[in-house]
Amino acid sequence: MTNKNLKSDNNAKIQSILREVLGDVKPCEDEKNHLTTFSKKIIDTINEMKEYPILNVVRVGSTARGTNLKNDHDIDIFLKFDKNTDREELKEIGLNFGIELVTKLNGKYWVKYAEHPYITAKIDKFSLDLVPCYDIQWGEKLISSVDRTPLHNEFLLNAYKRHEKYCKSKKYESYPNGTITDDVIILKRFLKGIGLYGSDLKTAGFSGYLCELLIYYYGGFINLLNSAKKWKAGKKILLTDILEIYNIKSPEWNTEYLENPNIYFNEHYTNINLINLNNSEENNSNVIKLKEYKFLDNKYYKNQPLVIYDPSDLDRNVAAALSTENFYKFVLYARKFLEDPNIEYFYDYDKKVLNNLNDREKGYELCLKIPRNPEIVDDIIYPQMDRLQKSISHIFEENDFAIVRFSNHANESFCYISWEFLISKMPDLMCKMGPPIYSPKGVDNFIAHNPKYFVKEDRLYAYCPRKYKSVDELLYNIVEGKLQKIITYPKYVNPEEGEILKDKYIERI
Ligand SMILES: Nc1ccn([C@@H]2O[C@H](COP(=O)(O)OP(=O)(O)OP(=O)(O)O)[C@@H](O)[C@H]2O)c(=O)n1
Ligand SMILES: [Mg+2]
Q: Are 322 and 212 members of one domain?
């Protein structure tokens, strides 16, 4: 961060806040040493278990990189298997191995499910994930989605080293509070404070890996906020490192002259077609063919507010889970914090905003409470609640019941879909929109069915009796299944099993 980036009167205040936050959330040396000693013990034990065909063992995740928050004792160990190992075999060996290891270390274990099952364990105060994966090299196609994780780790560790060297050589004043990893920790706490940390589908925010890439890309927390305050949805970030990784030649590429090569690249080359730059002659079908990628207009990324191409898999957006609403929350709080720095942003700020929002006169509140199967995880339930809620909201709006806000929340036993309306009752009068005047056939048809018509601007409208005069009545009809044909019924959130709670609004927390 260069000082010119900050308003000078805020500079000192920001620095002191960041120091205080870091002091509070950065693990102390003792804690780090405990983690390292314990991880070493695990890896040593694994290496002694030679009867299993494991090629390599790697420690990954934030605790391996010094980017974890205090009291986060998660240790992620990935077990690499040969690419030719059969999937079923990988699953079975992975589980058996995990169980034997945890038993040896006197821990407790559970089986968890990602793309394939893995062992998660509690040993002393540490949580351990033991994930089997395939041994994939840079540029090779993934076999399972977790194969990326060791590459993420390798990428970040190298990137931090490169960056440190670069900072030293340029006397780059990037991290006034310490190192690049300290800025990652600060960003994670900031995002927790404003309720945006987590890439699960309930939070729809920023993953730890995304935080690390952002800090690396922008060269620190304050630099990131300074850019983020100007972001607009559709922001795309391509890390220049991929040029080297995938052997792409770039014209006029000279890092010596650039303060931040990553930003320079994105500003100057966002429209280049990487096909022309592809220097790779590889014909191996296992190697990613850059020719197949149209990075910057990929159809999958069209509606995503932020796209960061994963260096280990260019087909994946690291920010895929981030919702547009949360993207703009980040933009808003980045600006607010820089303009009026306050440590409050780092601690339950989202709850304070919510409390403030609730301290006011209310509209009309309704909540649909639907039983939930506790075995169906949040990552499935939340998107399904969102879909049902959108579909019902559409019907409310078609019937003129204006929605002030809505929220979806689930606990172990129930889903709660809540709405607040401006109005709960309507007169027996509805204004229906008809066709534009320049489509005579439609106009004649509309007039035949709606004798009380009139012209407004370029269209016909007509007064007609209203079908649903109260929003309660409309929701009761929905719960009774009378509007089944026009509602999306997700598999695990069925509105017909619902109960209507009046004057109730349950927040997502
Ligand atoms: N949505 C996710 C979640 C995880 N990972 C990979 O799995 C690793 C471990 O996941 P997790 O523990 O969730 O994240 P951390 O980076 O360790 O961050 P935290 O400090 O929150 O634990 C990440 O570093 C990342 O490589 C990923 O790519 N995408
Ligand atoms: Mg972790």
A: yes
ipTM of this complex prediction, to 2 decimal places: 0.92
Position 281 pLDDT exceeds 50? no
Binding residues: 62, 65, 74, 76, 129, 152, 188, 197
- Domain closes at, from 80, 110, 137: 137
Q: What is the pLDDT of residue 262?
A: 56
The answer to whether the CB of 152 is under 6 A from ligand 1 is yes
pTM: 0.85
Q: Do 133 and 63 share a structural domain?
A: yes
Dig out the tokens for 362 from the structure: 């209310």
Pocket of ligand 1 contains residue 182 by CB under 6 Å: no
Mean predicted lDDT score pLDDT of the chain: 85
Distance CA 133, CA 146 (A): 6
Q: Looking at the predicted structure, is the pLDDT value of residue 172 above 70?
A: no
Instruction: Tell me the residues surrounding ligand 2 (ion) with CB < 5 Å.
Output: 61-62, 74
Please tell me the predicted confidence (pLDDT) of residue 176.
Answer: 53
CATH code, domain with 369: 3.30.70.590
Burial 13-43 (b: 16+ CB within 10 A, else e): ebbebbeebbeebbbeeeeeebbeebbeebe
Domain hosting residue 231, numbered range:
3-26+148-339
238, 111: one domain: no
Residues in the chain: 509
Give 46 Cα–ligand 2 centroid separation in angstroms.
Answer: 20
Closest ligand 1 atom to residue 129 Cα is: 12
Domain annotation covers residue 401 = yes
Q: What is the 3 state secondary structure string of 480-491?
A: CCCCHHHCCCCC
Are 172 and 287 part of one and the same domain? yes
Best residue among 35, 149, 308 to mutate for probing ligand 1, ranked by most atoms within 8 Å of CB: 149
